[in-house]
């Protein structure tokens, strides 16, 4: 009998292919990170060479001082981003001041007096984690308070391709609150000190979350050219799951792009999450319907909307019994012999006692609680026996006439259409109200929301370069500071202990089989105790001596020597000694396997599984050989 190793080879090949696939995915992810920074090869080499030099200096300094920042395990050379072209607004907060920003001094109109005031605190500070030395941002500091702060643009934005970018980091997660930005409309009465929730804005964009509802807002306000009413238009929801951007405590880059052809697109971390057209993909639509239902029209009294009606010529059959019940007693049922008619299913508990504080005048007469009758436990039932109910084969129910087509059917009535008196057609909603300032008007149940690197421009290359010089460095640092794959697996197992079983099955078994398949002799020599090996060596030497003696006997027989007496003597000695145990003896195989298992139990968990696998496969092989 031969052992089929084909399945084992296939398993090992599959494990290797999966490992290569994961390595390939990791390498592609690294390439995507580099590509997302917008740097060419030369710039990336310069950046990494500077990083290596800084890392060396950092290592030397850490050895001398024996201290290090736990949040900064990867250093980059940071310089405050400078716009490389024309911009309408740019802010880095790296100077640590809010001189160009105005905090609101008004109150929220529809809020309680205790919380109506915009007294939430703002601060300029560095990130808590994955810090880039020298980089600072605007931080919302107060929990459960209204915040409002704004700044004027360098110049008003009017009817041009629009790129708006900024960064957000929910450093402590987010329970309920927003991190969206308002671009305030250019009006004659714009006063940043009086900035509040009803201050006119042209665009609102950014993340918002409450409960399990994760949103990315894009709202623009459109002016009706007929009556000058202003209405909010909401873009459709993002096409991806947004939850991770609110929970991973990383800095994310939010981008809104508007084009003169009315197309729009939203990005998170330079990946598109939603796109559409201002004319067709917003709610409510920009342009009203040309025709509408006539509100004065009403359905005629004789209008018949019934497509089917009961057949007026149908007659109920004479044998149709509408009174027949749906269920009847089973006439074939017989009461079991062990059924106890005179016993109750429940009886008073004989061990129950009336509570000492029981007042019969207040509580009534005390009665012992009911318990299942112990006599009924051995019987099929107690009490009055009744036949079980079954479906009535004669049951037909209420007779109804079959349905036929309605000869008078006129269809579903709809009011007539008339021209919409409020109809207008605006084919260029992109030409929305110009805006003059940028503002944050927020309420949050979580503090320490981080904002940074605002930019408004009409040039994609300017926005991309700005992102690579700011958010790109943050992403590099965050990626470098992420725990390795082993640490991530350990963290996941702490939250979900059942993952240990998955780890053992996916790692221990393939490794054990690979070692066993590639180096079987080495594995068995390592697993079998030294005493067993010495015994096997002695047995091997005895076998060699016996083979030599047999060869000598054969030579003596050929030469005509009297070998019969010598053979008899040897057989007598063997009978006296008893049969020798070889490695093929079941007892020897069992002893070796038990010793192998004992030696495995002192190893690490994964190694123990691998070791035991080798022991039992070795035992099976020896049994097959025997």
Automatic annotation (TrEMBL):
Keywords: Acetylation, Calcium, Chaperone, Disulfide bond, Endoplasmic reticulum, Membrane, Phosphoprotein, Repeat, Signal, Transmembrane, Transmembrane helix. Residues 290-323, 575-584 have a biased composition (Basic and acidic residues). Residues 536-574 have a biased composition (Acidic residues). One of its GO terms (biological process) is ERAD pathway. The chain crosses the membrane at residues 498-519. InterPro entries: Calret/calnex, Calret/calnex_CS, Calreticulin/calnexin_P_dom_sf, ConA-like_dom_sf. Disulfide bonds join 176-210. Residues 1-23 form the signal peptide. Residues 286-323, 536-589 are annotated as: Disordered. It is a single-pass type I membrane protein. It is found in: Endoplasmic reticulum membrane. One of its GO terms (molecular function) is unfolded protein binding. Its main location: endoplasmic reticulum. GO terms for cellular component: endoplasmic reticulum membrane. It comes from the Eukaryota. Belongs to the calreticulin family. This is Calmegin. It comes from Neogobius melanostomus (round goby).
């Amino acid at each position: 009998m031969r052992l089929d190793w084909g399945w084992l080879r296939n398993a090992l090949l599959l494990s290797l292919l999966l490992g290569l696939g994961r390595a390939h995915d990791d390498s592609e992810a690294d390439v995507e990170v580099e590509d997302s920074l917008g740097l060419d090869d030369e710039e990336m080499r310069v950046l990494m060479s500077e990083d290596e030099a800084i890392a060396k200096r950092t290592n030397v300094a850490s050895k001398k001082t024996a201290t290090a920042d736990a949040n900064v395990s990867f250093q980059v050379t940071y310089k405050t981003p400078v716009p490389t072209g024309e911009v309408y607004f740019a802010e880095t907060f790296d100077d640590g001041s809010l001189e160009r920003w105005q905090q609101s001094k008004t109150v929220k109109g529809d809020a309680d007096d205790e919380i109506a005031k915009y007294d939430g605190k703002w601060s300029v500070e560095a990130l808590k984690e994955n810090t880039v030395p020298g980089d600072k941002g605007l931080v919302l500091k107060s929990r459960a308070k209204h915040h409002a702060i704004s700044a004027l643009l360098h110049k008003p934005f009017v009817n041009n391709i629009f790129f708006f970018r900024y960064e957000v980091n929910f450093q402590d997660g987010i329970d309920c609150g927003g991190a969206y930005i308002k671009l305030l409309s250019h009006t004659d009465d714009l006063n940043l000190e009086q900035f509040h929730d009803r201050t006119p804005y042209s665009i609102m964009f950014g993340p918002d979350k409450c409960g399990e509802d994760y949103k990315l807002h894009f709202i623009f306000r459109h002016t009706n050219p007929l009556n000058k009413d202003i209405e909010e238009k909401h873009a459709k929801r993002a096409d991806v799951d947004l939850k991770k951007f609110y929970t991973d405590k990383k800095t994310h880059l939010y981008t809104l792009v508007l084009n003169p052809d009315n197309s729009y697109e939203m990005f998170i971390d330079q990946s598109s999450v939603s796109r559409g057209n201002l004319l067709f993909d917003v709610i409510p639509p920009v342009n009203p319907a040309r025709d509408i239902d006539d509100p004065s029209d009403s359905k005629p009294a004789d209008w018949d909307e019934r497509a089917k009606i009961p057949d007026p010529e149908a007659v109920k059959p004479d044998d149709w019994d509408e009174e027949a019940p749906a269920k009847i007693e089973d006439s074939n049922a017989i009461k079991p012999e062990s059924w106890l008619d005179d016993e109750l299913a429940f009886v008073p508990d004989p061990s129950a006692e009336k509570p000492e504080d029981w007042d019969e005048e207040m509580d009534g007469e005390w009665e012992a609680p009911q318990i299942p009758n112990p006599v009924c436990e051995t019987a099929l039932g107690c009490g009055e026996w009744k036949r079980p109910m079954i479906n009535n084969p004669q049951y037909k129910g209420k007779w109804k006439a079959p349905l036929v087509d309605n000869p008078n059917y006129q269809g579903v009535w709809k009011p007539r259409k008339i021209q919409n008196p409020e109809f207008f057609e605006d084919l260029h909603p992109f030409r929305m109200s110009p805006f003059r300032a940028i503002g944050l008007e927020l309420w949050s149940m979580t503090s320490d929301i981080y904002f940074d690197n605002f930019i408004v421009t009409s040039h994609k290359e300017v926005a991309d370069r700005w992102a690579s010089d700011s958010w790109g460095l943050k992403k590099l640092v965050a990626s470098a500071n992420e725990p390795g794959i082993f640490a991530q697996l350990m963290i996941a197992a702490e939250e979900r202990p059942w993952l240990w079983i998955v780890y053992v099955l996916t790692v221990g078994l393939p490794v054990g089989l690979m070692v066993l398949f590639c180096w079987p002799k080495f594995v068995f020599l390592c697993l079998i105790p030294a005493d067993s090996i010495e015994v096997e060596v002695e047995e091997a030497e005895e076998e060699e001596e016996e083979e030599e003696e047999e060869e000598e006997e054969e030579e003596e027989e050929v030469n005509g020597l009297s070998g019969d007496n010598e053979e008899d003597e040897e057989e007598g000695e063997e009978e006296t000694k008893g049969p020798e145990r070889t490695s093929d003896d079941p007892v020897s195989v069992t002893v070796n396997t038990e010793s192998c298992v004992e030696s495995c139990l002192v190893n690490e968990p994964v190694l123990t599984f691998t070791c035991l696998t080798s022991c039992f496969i070795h035992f099976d092989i020896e049994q097959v050989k025997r």
